Amino acid sequence: MASTVAFTPAVAVGANVQHSRRTSSLRPVPRARPVAARASAERDGAAAAVQARSGRTIEECEADAVAGKFPAAPPPTRPQAPNGTPEIRPLDMAKRPRRNRRSPALRAAFQETSITPANLVLPLFIHEGEEDTPIGAMPGCFRLGWRHGLLEEVYKSRDVGVNSFVLFPKVPDGLKTQTGDEAYNDNGLVPRTIHLLKDKYPDIVIYTDVALDPYSSDGHDGIVREDGVIMNDETVHQLCKQAVSQARAGADVVSPSDMMDGRVGAIRAALDAEGFHDVSIMSYTAKYASSFYGPFREALDSNPRFGDKKTYQMNPANYREALIETAADEAEGADILLVKPGLPYLDIIRLLRDNSALPIAAYQVSGEYSMIKAGGVLKMVDEEKVMMESLLCLRRAGADIILTYFARQAANVLCGSKRP
Q: What spans are recorded as compositionally biased (Low complexity) (predicted)?
């Protein structure tokens, strides 16, 4: 009588493999992995864990929940105060503002002011040279070669969301005259730069500076008479030609920073006469005769050859005068009103915000930038935190856009980037 030999699955598989090697005609049949069995075991283990914690099965807990029977909440616990803390009766206060500040989520939910890269305008210094020249008084800033370094800086800025730029030229001394005629040369440094940028990056917004000081051999924003008087109406005539030249090159916003009387209306009329109805005017409405401009003048080599700018820039002691300038610029057709400097003049920014429906710009000037940079280098302040706080304060005061040399650095922070 033949005997029956029982094979286990492992033995059977081994036999099939051996047979396959001998005959090359048979292949082992793979066995299905016990997925369903393992998943079932995992569920059983989870149920057991619940039962072990509560002493009851999942089914019992679900039945109680359907019936509205829930376990009692654990008793509240209060963190211990340090030894020596006085035991007092809580103050009788209906309102406790700290309630809305007690967690990061609540603080973020109730934050009133925000800032994004779209609020930032990056000032760029340009020159005729090929190399980027560092500006000693402004660490991290350069006179950019208009063909190469400028394009790289704009590329990096756009990469983190900064799409607005304002151009400031370092004009060769040989091109400077008392009447600043180079300011409206259609083939000058600024028009060529605008053409290049618009060809490479047609979607960016280009602001320009309308003033004679970079082009003047006297270093003033206007034509200087032999007795030292800055000639207002004659200067405005030159500024109109400068603004039209910039618009012809492709500027989106022309920005008269000279503080001559009547220049906004005259520039608007000149632009419209040439068909540039869509070119905006950002007027330096409240530009003060400030001591914070020093590093900027080093960057452009535009210090006045004599005297100061107090007959056309505003007295830092004056507040109500800004309302006069605001009313005039609005009536003459300004599209944006600017306050310069920024942080020392937060009250003026708020004044314009409360008295005009136009967009308000603030210029965080070179002196403000350099002080924050110096404080960071000397480890007196946290540069990044002070930078971001200062920009947020300008926004809180009422600025819609901020011209700042920190624009790309701040945008890196806002984007969570660590790019150089």
A: 27-39
Report the half-sphere exposure of 65 (CA within 13 A, side-chain side).
7
The count of C-alpha atoms lying within 13 angstroms of the C-alpha of 270, restricted to the half-sphere facing its C-beta, is 21
Q: Annotated catalytic residue: which of 287, 309, 373, 379?
A: 287
Q: Distance between CA 229 and CA 212 in Å, rounded?
A: 15
Whether 340 sits among the annotated catalytic residues: the reply is yes
- Please state whether the predicted TM-score (pTM) of the whole model is above 0.90: no
Residue with more model confidence, 339 or 41: 339
Exactly one of 170, 176, 309, 340 is catalytic; which is it? Answer: 340
Per domain, the residue ranges of the chain are 117-415
- The residue-averaged pLDDT of 358-362 equals 98
d(CA 72, CA 74) in angstroms, rounded, equals 6
198 has catalytic annotation: no
- Provide the mean pLDDT of the chain: 88
Nearest CA to 267 out of 287, 282, 252 is that of 282
Region of 371 on the Ramachandran plot (φ > 0 left; ψ -120 to 50 alpha; else beta): alpha
Do the Cβ atoms of 226 and 293 come closer than 8 Å?
Answer: no
| Residue that the structure tokens 């309630």 belong to | 99
Given this model, what pLDDT does residue 24 score? 42
**One-letter amino acid identity for 78?**
R
- The angle formed by the CA atoms of residues 336, 342 and 343, to the nearest 5 degrees, is 150
Hey, CA dihedral for 37, 40, 44, 46, is it positive or negative? positive
The predicted pLDDT at position 54 comes to 62
256-310, pLDDT tens digit by residue?
999 999 999 999 999 999 999 999 999 999 999 999 998 887 777 777 888 899 9
Does 117-415 carry CATH code 3.20.20.70? yes
